[in-house]
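Following up on my earlier message about arginine. Here are the inputs again, as you asked, copied directly from the submission form:
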Amino acid sequence: MKLLKSVAAAVALCAAVTVHARPLAEVQKDGKILIATEGQFAPFNFFNGTTLTGFEVEVAELVAKKMGLTIQWKTLGFDALLTGLRQDRWDLVIASHGITEERAKAVTFTEPHYCSGGMIIAMDPAIKNAKDLSGKVVAVQTGTSYLENVKKVSSIKEVKNFPTDVDARSALTSRRVDAWVTDRFVAKAVADKNPGAGFKLGDMLFIERIAAAVSKGNTSLAGAWNKALAEVMADGSYAQLSKKYFNEDVRCS
Ligand code: ARG
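Thanks, got it. Here's what our run produced:
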């Protein structure tokens, strides 16, 4: 009996300290949603001084407002984001994740908030498409869909991984690699900002739908997010934001 009691107590204690995905009702009761992003992927999520901003940061603010929630932001290395979601350390991740089959096994994706793709950037104008990458060294950020897709280009000499996309870009500017693969809008923003740097934007290697993610099976939270996202896409506020950042509407058609 004594043993049984202590086992029961231990089980109860475990249940009390076990973190679990917060369903919508719990988040609503709190009034706050904990969202994790990277903050190193301009113009989508980045720091302007000490202020976290960017297209998807602002989209998230619009969506959360429609949900009647305030956001508590957390910024971490890209690699830690989905892992932390699986450990229920935050409610949602928004960091330009492309919806992939592999990731969808581990997390639940919301509806996409934009469509884009991986683009080849080089200093040498002769490196434009997948064929041109033959025998070349290519820089990508670790854990990204760029890495997965560059690996599929058979005749590549080497894929170099970097902890941030900014580091991957630096490798190209310092000519340590022949090409860099990143998001087409990231590439465009970098080229626009540094007109004299010699970035040559090549072809898109693949396209992808970019979405936020919640803990696997947290359908109540994903559903509420999707409903609010549809609303900001319908009321003109998404369109306005997209125009401000990209001068075009980047939603998936
Ligand atoms: N879209 C790419 C992917 O799905 C890259 C995302 C990179 N995001 C970031 N915050 N650095 O993997």
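One observation from looking it over: DSSP finds ten helices and eleven strands in the chain. Hope that helps, and feel free to reply on this thread.
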